Every structure is written in structure tokens, then in C-alpha cells.
């Protein structure tokens, strides 16, 4: 496998290096079966409701999550935005979410920018939940005329920035009860909710029953090339279909993509467990080095995401990631590992269909080598005595 890497900004070729790309699961390639069904898909104009393959995918996905209806949309971001716009159907609306929610952090503020809705935030706990007493305090429904009105609570499952954490069902039940008590709706950003169902060994409808609407990505661990599903009541989906159109999301012969989506839900859900096993293997191997530079909270590795903590007093995630990715002429381990980081204090790795058992071993070999190398370098620097140089 060939991969380009950068040295001082210059790209060069490392012809004999194996690439293990653990940045995210959106990079997954469609399977051979997906490619074949796409070529042969029966399609029509979906804006006119005339694409039988899209209709079939929507019907099956609604069934899968146990909702009345479902809508095929271009992305998870679009699914969340539509859900927010449909649930918040008044101008003084407020939503409540965790402060690490994807909808708050990584969707360009679409909640405010496009939906015109205010966000109230609750501190996300490490397990992806937030405190229920704080939630109760934040809900504003009997508002006086100074205040906005809470229309929607958003939960994220699995929780991306909390490291692929699966929301406990009893917590979801409590959120649902409180929402009902106040007449507020609940939306689940379930981009990776199939991973949650696999982890909990339950049918995904057992999770979706706690929320009014749910979306999930076909294009992440499920390997479809494009698309997400947004599901809910018949009435909700009818409004969602209308809202999708104003966002420019009315697509025509989308059945080509829906055909791949159908293969995704039929063939790619059960295998997610493999990604979870691989994630744990890598996490454990990092911890087994016994270095303070990189550590993983193993109890928190539940699905396909691993958050690796970096000792920022000694190095940064960026420096580590650069070394993971580079293959020097003198390196005996000819492996390039890519991961992603938004913070000097941690980096994230994501397992997916493209990462075989062999590649897992290769990644472990490289990462362990780099962590040991950093450890040695830091120790040798710390051994050098420092002198106070007085100038002037
Ligand atoms: C990826 C992701 C999304 C957005 O999906 P896109 O298809 O990339 O727009 C939303 N929520 C979570 C939790 C995600 O991980």
C-alpha cells in the first residue's frame, strides 16, 4: 500500500509502508455488494415520491428502529438540523443538550444559524449523560415573557466526544419521563446508535422507544457511501420531508444511494462487534506499555472509539500523531498510523470495517514503538542538568 506523508510540508512517498487509517469511520469504502446493487437499482424522482428504492429503505429503517416512518437524508448533520427545526416550531424555542454534543460543537451552530433556536447546555459526564436534576432545573415551559420555551432535549448515542459511550437505558427512561412531564420532545442523535445496540446486545428499537425522533448514519460504520436516516411519528416525518426540501435536500434519483443503504442495514450491523473488539485490543496495548505519556480509561472503551489521554506536560497529541503517521528511512516498523485530535491533551482513534485483524496488529506495533521512543527521549532530556545562564 502506498501512502503520501509530509516532511516539513513536503509530500514524499513511502512505498513499503502499511497505512492504518484510524481517523474516523466515515472513510469506510462501500462493499462489493453495495457497488453491485447501486448499478442495478430501480430509481425514480424521489421529490415526487417516485423512487421505489428510497421508499423501501425508508420503510425498512422505520421498522428497524420501531417508528412509524423514516426519511432518507444526505447527512447526519442534515438529519439533526431537520429534527430541531420540526420539533422547535416557534420563534422563542430553546433546546437543551450536553456541552459536548455533536449538534452543539460540530454542526457549525446550525441550531442558531439556520433553525434560529437558542441552545442551553448541561455539562456532559464522562459516560455521555448529563445530570437529571440539572436537566429539571434547565427546562423552561411555564416561562414568563422574559424567557424562551424549552421545546426539545437532545441526547447523543453513542457519544462521540465521550469516546463512543453508550447511554444507559434507565437514564434514557428518566429523560423520557421528565420530558413527558413537561411536554418537551426528545431527539436522539444516534449517528452510531447501531454500535450502542450491539454493545447492549438489544434490538435498536429498544433504544429508540425512549425518544420521539432518532437519526443514524448509514455512512459511518455501516459503510454506505452517503446518507442518514431520520425516523419518528408519521406526522413528524411528513414535516421533516417538507423541511428537508427547504434545506436543498430534496434529491431526485437517490435510489442509487438508498440501494447501498439497504445493504448497509442488512449486512453491516452485526459485524460492528468486531470493531469494538479491535478498539479494546488497541486500547489495552497502549495501556500495557505502562507509560504516563499515553493512557486509556479501559472501563470506558465500549464501542469503536478510543480516547487516548496524553500527558501534556511532557508532549502533545499533535507531536505523537505526527510520529505515528511518519515512516522514517531508519524505521524497522514500516507502518503509518493516522488518528485525529482537536486538543493537545488527547487523541481519538476509531475502528471500522477497513481495519482488519492484521492492521490492528500493525497499528499496535507502531503506536507502542512510538510511545516507547517518546518515553526514552523525554527521560534522556530530563537527565541533562540545567544551568541558569545569567546574561548581561
Ligand atoms: C458524524 C456525526 C454526526 C454528523 O454526521 P454527518 O453525516 O457527518 O453530517 C452527527 N452526530 C454525531 C454524534 C456524529 O458522530
Automatic annotation (TrEMBL):
Modified residues (N6-(pyridoxal phosphate)lysine): 220
Domain Aromatic amino acid beta-eliminating lyase/threonine aldolase stretches: 21-311
Any GO MF annotation of the entry: L-allo-threonine aldolase activity
Record's protein name: Aromatic amino acid beta-eliminating lyase/threonine aldolase domain-containing protein
GO biological process, one term: L-threonine catabolic process
Organism: Henosepilachna vigintioctopunctata
Cofactor(s) this protein requires: pyridoxal 5'-phosphate
Domain of life: Eukaryota
Record GO cellular component, one term: cytosol
Cited Gene3D superfamilies: Aspartate Aminotransferase, domain 1 (3.90.1150.10), Type I PLP-dependent aspartate aminotransferase-like (Major domain) (3.40.640.10)
One Pfam family per UniProt: Beta_elim_lyase
Record-linked SUPFAM superfamilies: PLP-dependent transferases (SSF53383)
UniProt family annotation: Belongs to the threonine aldolase family.
UniProt keyword annotations, A-Z: Lyase, Pyridoxal phosphate
